[in-house]
Write a structure and sequence with these properties.
The chain is an alpha/beta fold and 277 residues long. It has 9 helices and 8 strands. The structure holds NADP nicotinamide-adenine-dinucleotide phosphate (NAP). NADP nicotinamide-adenine-dinucleotide phosphate (NAP) binds next to helix 1 and helix 6. Keywords: Oxidoreductase.
Length: 277
């Protein structure tokens, strides 16, 4: 039986991924900042689940989580994320989107990488196309724009997922890294932004969370996905069934990915010692 760790599994796509994998026989760890909400979801799942506390907007919580995780996992799904939220900062002073969605996932993965046997799946978004990796990563010196901040974090997710795969392969590891994106799916995160801008970006009717979870499930379980991105096969990758998708040219920029990696190590204090095993 395989073990899968899903971050942000107390709602939306993460809950759906946890449900499907647990009901298919996996042991699923729901790693969530709200353990009551996570326990309520776990209670509805007909399978083996465990709830653990993890706040990706707080490096000390990520360290505690990693220190206390008692075992290895087969699959780590970096799903948790904030979407289009007003300007805010994490416990460590990072802008909320980049801090939670990228730096949190980067730190968690780095602390667990020697304990992930099969693969790391990182959830990005079609809105990565809006993103640029700014010198001012934390939006301290320009007017804050929430969807551009989200776009930056989701571009960072892709740069990270691809770079992680290159580094794992170069180190001779068998663990793979895969990116996934759900298209547009009706979840709390997607509904929370009721601005016209948010609705326009969501682009038409959303598919169900069950459909949105499919690319993540495909990335977590199928062969032949190493170093790729899985997304929906429909128009503009907004809806449909999972397939390997092309992401922006910027997301495949290896120099940008390497620079972001060094910066993420510096900011989080988490260093990946991949070559040393
Ligand atoms: N829905 C879409 O159309 C869509 C499109 C593209 C990409 N995505 C991506 O899909 C992923 C899941 O989003 P969703 O649509 O399922 O939204 P959601 O229902 O809002 O779920 C987001 C999850 O992330 C968790 N989370 C947020 N901040 C966290 C933190 N600091 N520490 C730990 N967990 C945290 C949330 O926990 P709380 O309940 O405690 O807030 C929640 O469980 C995200 O990465 C999102 O960017 C979604």
């Amino acid at each position: 039986m395989s073990t899968v760790l899903v971050t942000g599994a107390n709602s939306g796509l993460g809950a759906e991924v946890a449900r499907v994998l647990a009901e298919a026989g996996a042991e699923v760890i729901l790693a969530c900042r709200d353990v009551d909400k996570a326990s309520a979801v776990a209670d509805t799942i007909d399978g083996k689940t465990e709830v653990r506390s993890l706040d990706l907007a707080d490096l000390s919580s990520i360290h505690t989580f990693a220190d206390e995780l008692p075992r290895s996992v087969d699959v780590l799904v970096n799903n948790a994320g904030v979407m289009g939220v007003p300007r805010g900062t994490t416990a460590d002073g990072f802008e909320s989107h980049i801090g939670t969605n990228h730096l949190g996932a980067f730190a968690l993965t780095g602390l667990l990488i020697d304990r992930v046997r099969d693969r790391v799946v990182t959830v990005s978004s079609g809105l990565h196309v809006l993103g640029r990796i700014h010198d001012d990563l934390n939006w301290e010196h320009r007017r804050y724009q929430r969807w551009l901040a989200y776009g930056q974090s989701k571009l960072a997710n892709l740069l990270f997922a691809y770079e992680l795969h290159r580094r794992l392969s170069a180190a001779g590891r068998t663990t793979i890294s895969v990116a996934a994106h759900p298209g547009v799916a009706a979840t709390e995160g997607q509904r929370r932004d009721t601005s016209i801008q948010g609705k326009l970006l969501a682009g038409g009717p959303a598919q169900t969370p069950v459909m949105g979870a499919l690319p993540i499930l495909y990335a977590a379980t199928e062969a032949g996905v190493a170093g790729t991105c899985v997304g929906p096969d429909g128009f503009l990758q907004r809806r449909g069934h999972p397939t390997l998708v092309r992401t922006s040219r910027r997301s495949r920029d290896t120099a940008l990915a390497a620079a972001l990696w060094e910066r993420s190590e510096r900011l989080t204090g988490v260093r990946y010692a991949l070559a040393s095993r």
